[in-house]
């Protein structure tokens, strides 16, 4: 009985050594990006350059690192992979807003850390500058907008507030555009409509010119 107990104790000691040693090597490595140990948002602006440095902490052996931009793998030079790896994001633009960069351990890709770019920029407005319509037809003025932070949008007419008439004017707004629909346009709808976008950074205006022609009677 004493022999059995001794054998069991030796087995338990062996199992304990396995539990303490092997998983420790697999789980002890921690990744940091620019010194941060958790996923984070990086505030930046168009035209700037950002450097992201991923490093392995507490590693017990050489660890190869992988970088991803969204779902696409970033090509790294051979000297920029082991234990520490950097990627440089150059010529940042409005289109990089919300892009995620992720650093992973090649050996265990569930060990990863991500950085999301928060590119702040003033409103960018676009749309058809001139529209011509016949009396009685329907018109849509669409003011496209890109802005971060999101802008407050409004329509003006001839530099003054636009008086909305029920069943004649309708406004539709999303995060990407402000639309003014005019049903059965009249001569009085002729004029310059200003799309105004007001953000915390800057206020921008774009003019839309509507020319209403008399209905051609054949």
UniProtKB/TrEMBL annotation:
Keyword Transmembrane helix: yes
Cellular compartments annotated: Cell membrane; Cytoplasm
BP-aspect Gene Ontology terms: cell-cell adhesion; regulation of cell population proliferation
Membrane topology according to the record: Single-pass type I membrane protein
Domain called Ig-like: residue spans: 23-114, 122-209
Pfam families recorded: I-set
Coiled coil: none
GO cellular component terms, semicolon-separated: cell-cell junction; cytoplasm; plasma membrane
Any GO MF annotation of the entry: cell adhesion molecule binding
Keywords annotated in UniProt: Cell membrane, Cytoplasm, Disulfide bond, Glycoprotein, Immunoglobulin domain, Membrane, Repeat, Signal, Transmembrane, Transmembrane helix
Transmembrane segments: none
Region forming the signal peptide: 1-29
Keyword tRNA-binding: no
SMART domains: IG, IGc2
Subunit structure: Homodimer.
Record's function text: May control cell-cell adhesion, cell migration and proliferation, cell morphology, and protects renal epithelial cells from oxidative cell injury to promote cell survival.
Name listed for the protein in its UniProt record: Transmembrane and immunoglobulin domain-containing protein 1
Name of the gene encoding the protein in the UniProt record: TMIGD1
């Amino acid at each position: 009985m004493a022999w059995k107990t001794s054998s069991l104790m030796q087995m338990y000691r062996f199992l304990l050594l396995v539990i303490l040693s092997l998983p420790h090597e697999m789980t002890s490595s921690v990744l940091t990006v620019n010194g941060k140990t958790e996923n984070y948002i990086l505030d930046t602006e168009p035209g700037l350059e950002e450097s992201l440095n991923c490093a392995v902490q507490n590693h017990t052996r050489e660890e190869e690192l992988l970088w991803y931009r969204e779902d696409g793998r970033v090509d790294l030079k051979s000297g920029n992979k082991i234990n520490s790896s950097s990627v440089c994001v150059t010529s940042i633009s409005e289109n990089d807003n919300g892009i995620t960069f992720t650093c992973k351990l090649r050996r265990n890709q569930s060990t990863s850390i991500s950085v999301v770019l928060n590119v702040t920029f003033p409103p960018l407005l676009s749309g058809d500058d001139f529209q011509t319509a016949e009396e009685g037809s329907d018109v849509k003025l669409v003011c496209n907008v890109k802005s971060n932070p999101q802008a407050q949008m409004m329509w003006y007419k001839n530099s003054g507030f636009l008086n909305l008439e029920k069943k004649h004017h309708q406004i539709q707004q999303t995060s990407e555009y402000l639309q003014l629909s005019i049903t059965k346009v009249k001569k009085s709808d002729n004029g310059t409509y200003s799309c105004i976008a007001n953000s915390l950074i800057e206020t921008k205006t774009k003019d839309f010119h509507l020319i209403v022609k008399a209905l051609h009677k054949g």
